[in-house]
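Hi R.,

Here's the chain you asked about this morning:
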Amino acid sequence: MRRTGKDRIGLTLCYGPPDNTGITDIFIGEVELESIAGSDGRIHEGDQILQVCISTDAKLTHRRCLGKCQKASRV
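And here is the predicted structure, written out as tokens:
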């Protein structure tokens, strides 16, 4: 969990090619060891993002996912 807004979640996201509606699959490309996600240990390179901030959308647009991840307070 973030203690301050400056704490880094520490994830590099990778996106599959968007379909004809702009929806894309989102995967973890890298986890920074000295970050919240790295310290937590539950998220690994290659994991697929299925839910962000209680959104039940299995697929999000690149822009919407990035915005939700930047605002997230928990991993």
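One quick note: The longest strand covers residues 26-31.

Cheers,
M.
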